[in-house]
Write a structure and sequence with these properties.
Blueprint (H helix, E strand, L loop, with lengths): L3 H19 L23 H15 L16 H9 L9
Helix pairs in contact: 1-2, 1-3
Length: 94
Amino acid sequence: MADKNLEERVVTELKRLIVEELGLNLAPTEIDPDTSLFEGGLGIDSIAIVELISVAEEHFGLKFADEDLVVSSFSSIRTFANMIATKPGLQLAS
């Protein structure tokens, strides 16, 4: 389980990345981190999820293993942030 403070920092960064890189028409502060990333929530499609994975790997200095890339890891920003926060080598700006 990830440190809650670290996880919250990752959540904040992910919300910003989603807005900036995926062109979501919301402010980061308007995004509930527990809302689904998919249909019924933010409505991000599978192509955009692949883009988000790539952007997150670059931003956080990580490489996700195949076993990380399961649908349940991307059910919400918080679940994705939790996975990122538990990865060794995570790089966050101070």
